């Protein structure tokens, strides 16, 4: 059974240490590193929200309290307000908040990506859900991605993208997009990589053993072996904010008004 868009939840992995961007992440979690005036997490959520996916689950870990504080104060910071100090009254006026419902889940400081995903099983229930990393943006059409997933009828769909540098590779069957093999390390001559932006059925939770499980290793590899992993080929813009140089390039694109991932108005 297909899950209605209004009930589909978007899980975002936001708990890692971000060690390769340590110039920024020693102060804050990687998803809170800013591109322009907003953290990259906000940009990712806007990509989904543009297509009507407004229910989010943020998987917290390293400095997760900062993400909790950001959303706790989001309505306040996006609103005009009157503060009556004498009567201790706060009146909100015009606000520019998005229609988001955000669930913030502490998934542990040292938990691996698969373990973080498994910890939200009760929040997902038996519905199809979306998943992505808290450091990657793209001009992807989420509706088309979901449509592709349902057409294939498998447990998991990963978005395959062309890499700007070395990442884990996907061996694809060109005709159907079926993933024959998942490899965490880039193999010579391979062009497609794991770009995040997953669509998943709740059966994937059974492929995750415990907190020490990395989503990109055991679970995705076994899903591929079982013929339950397909790839949606995204040929447009995609970029992972992995290094300080990546951050600077994304920030420049945003500042000059040429951010390809800005699919919203």
Overall structural class, as computed from helix and strand content, comes to alpha/beta
- What is the global morphology? globular
Separation of the first and last Cα atoms: 32 Å
Range of helix content = 25-40%
**Cα gyration radius (Å):** 19 Å
Q: Beta-strand level of the residues, as a percent range?
A: 25-35%
Largest sheet: 8 strands, mixed
CATH architecture: Alpha-Beta Complex
The CATH class label is: Alpha Beta
Helical element count? 9
**What's the CATH topology label?**
Spore Coat Polysaccharide Biosynthesis Protein SpsA, Chain A
Q: What is the oligomer described by this structure? A: single chain
Query: What is the H level of CATH, i.e. the homologous superfamily?
Result: Spore Coat Polysaccharide Biosynthesis Protein SpsA, Chain A
- Mean pLDDT rating: 92
User: What is the count of distinct domains?
Assistant: 1
Query: Which spans of ≥5 residues are poorly predicted at pLDDT below 50?
Result: none
Tell me the number of strands. 16
Q: H/E element string?
A: EHEEHEHHEEEHHEEHEEEEEHEEH
Short characterization:
The protein is an alpha/beta fold.
Question: How does this structure look, described?
Answer:
Helices cover 26% and strands 27% of the residues. It is of the alpha/beta class. Strands 1, 4, 7, 8, 10, 13, 14 and 15 form an 8-stranded mixed sheet that branches. Strands 2-3 form a two-stranded antiparallel ribbon. It has a two-stranded antiparallel ribbon with strand order 5-6. The protein is globular, with a radius of gyration of 19 Å.
């Amino acid at each position: 059974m297909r899950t209605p868009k209004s009930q589909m939840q978007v899980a975002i992995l936001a708990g890692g240490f971000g060690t390769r961007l340590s110039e920024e992440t020693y102060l804050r979690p990687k998803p809170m590193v800013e591109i322009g005036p907003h953290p990259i997490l906000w940009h990712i959520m806007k990509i989904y929200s543009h297509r009507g996916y407004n229910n989010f689950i943020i998987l917290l870990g390293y400095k997760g309290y900062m993400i909790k504080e950001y959303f706790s104060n989001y309505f306040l910071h996006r609103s005009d307000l009157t503060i009556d100090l004498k009567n201790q009254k706060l009146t909100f006026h015009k606000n520019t908040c998005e229609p988001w419902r955000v669930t913030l889940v502490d998934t542990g400081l040292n938990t691996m990506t698969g373990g973080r995903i498994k910890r939200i099983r009760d929040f997902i229930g038996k519905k199809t859900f979306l998943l992505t990393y808290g450091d990657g943006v793209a001009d992807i059409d989420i509706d088309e991605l979901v449509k592709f997933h349902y057409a294939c009828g498998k447990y998991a769909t990963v978005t395959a993208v062309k890499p700007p540098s070395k990442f884990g590779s996907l061996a694809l069957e060109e005709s159907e997009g079926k993933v024959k093999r998942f490899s965490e390390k880039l193999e010579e001559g391979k062009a497609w990589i794991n770009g995040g932006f997953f669509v998943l059925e709740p059966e994937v939770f059974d492929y995750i053993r415990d907190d020490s499980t990395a989503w990109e290793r055991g679970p995705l590899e076994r899903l591929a072996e079982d013929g339950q992993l397909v790839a949606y080929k995204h040929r447009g813009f995609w970029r992972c904010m992995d290094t300080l140089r990546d951050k600077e390039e994304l920030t420049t694109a945003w500042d000059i008004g040429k951010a390809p991932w800005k699919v919203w108005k």
